[in-house]
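User: Hi! I have a protein structure encoded as tokens and I'd like to know what sequence might fold into it. I'm fairly new to this, so please keep things simple.
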């Protein structure tokens, strides 16, 4: 069997078009423009690249971005002051603090200082707390986990009553995506580095979310025939045949697992583009809320 491809690029392009239409409507009806502030501390090349991608994506859909590029030696107090100033800016509906922050910065305090109404990354402790409780809707759901669920929904995958296995329990992916699956009435198993007989546990899954950061770890014989597999992993592996000397692969051995699974998202080209689309979605939703549109 060859699995249905869950094409994150195509699905995210559709979502961006939807957001572009909503932003144009908002401008026409309310003369308002959604705004996203980006906070980048220091000169990490990967962080700069991520922030640039986000700014470009904003421009494409009609969201204004407000860049705050700050020196790597900024103090905790100065950074807090910047966040508080952005909180006060009525043109900003979402604040994205690019992680990781330098070691001397208390990340938890910075994330906790973001106005709850503008926490489009969904990492404010209150939003995470609400996500972890029954019938307490968070204002924002973290982008990568939300992107995983959106991929399932837009592929027509039924979640309720299914056996879902989440491989990984990080604060940014594994744990929140597990909470979302639970809210959608999946029967949930979370695996991690201490899980015994991982292949056997993974094989229970009707829906498998792989977020471990181990290149091509999930093999075909770990996967239940017909299962839906969402691969969050993005891992660089050496490849001398490539100009840059490496290529990106997921946590799932795509070529063999696609012969067993019912549907599978590739990596790259699956969850990655959805993460940015969900950041735009959260920013748009925030602007609509602010304009009283929902
Ligand atoms: P973390 O390193 O924070 O977490 C990895 C999780 O996997 C941990 O819970 C860890 O267990 C578990 N784990 C690690 N090795 C094993 C193993 N051999 N067997 C079982 N469990 C294991 O990673 P992230 O959650 O931040 O990221 C996971 C992957 O997703 C990475 O490849 C990352 O690049 C990618 N990613 C992609 C994004 C996107 O937009 N596409 C966004 C964010 C991440 P334990 O808790 O016991 O240590």
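Assistant: Happy to help. Inverse folding works backwards from shape to sequence: for each of the 294 positions I chose a residue that suits the local structure. Here it is:
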């Amino acid at each position: 069997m060859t699995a249905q491809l869950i094409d994150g690029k195509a699905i995210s392009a559709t979502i961006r078009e939807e957001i572009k239409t909503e932003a144009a409507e908002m401008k026409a009806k309310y003369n308002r423009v959604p705004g996203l502030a980006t906070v980048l501390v220091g000169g990490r090349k990967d962080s700069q690249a991520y922030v640039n991608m986000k700014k470009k994506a904003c421009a494409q859909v009609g969201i204004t971005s407000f860049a705050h590029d700050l020196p790597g030696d900024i103090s905790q107090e100065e950074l807090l002051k910047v966040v508080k100033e952005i909180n006060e800016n009525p043109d900003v509906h979402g604040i994205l603090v690019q992680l990781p922050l330098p070691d001397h910065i208390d990340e938890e305090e910075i994330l906790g200082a973001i106005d709850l109404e503008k926490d489009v990354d969904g990492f404010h402790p209150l939003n995470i707390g609400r996500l972890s409780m029954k019938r307490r809707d968070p204002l924002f759901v973290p982008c990568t986990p939300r992107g995983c669920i959106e991929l399932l929904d837009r592929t027509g995958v039924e979640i309720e009553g299914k056996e879902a296995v989440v491989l990984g329990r990080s604060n940014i992916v594994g744990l929140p995506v597990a909470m979302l699956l639970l809210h959608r009435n999946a029967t949930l198993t979370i695996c991690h580095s201490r899980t015994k007989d991982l292949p056997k546990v993974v094989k229970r899954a009707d829906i498998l979310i792989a977020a471990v950061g181990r290149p091509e770890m999930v093999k075909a014989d770990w996967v239940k025939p017909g299962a839906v597999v969402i691969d969050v992993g993005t891992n660089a592996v050496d490849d001398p045949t490539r100009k840059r000397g490496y290529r990106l692969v997921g946590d799932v051995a795509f070529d063999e697992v696609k012969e067993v699974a019912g549907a599978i998202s590739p990596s790259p080209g699956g969850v990655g583009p959805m993460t940015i689309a969900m950041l735009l979605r959260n920013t748009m939703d925030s602007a609509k809320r602010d304009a009283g549109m929902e």
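A useful reference point when you look it over: Residues 54 and 276 are 7 Å apart (CA to CA). Feel free to ask if any position seems puzzling.
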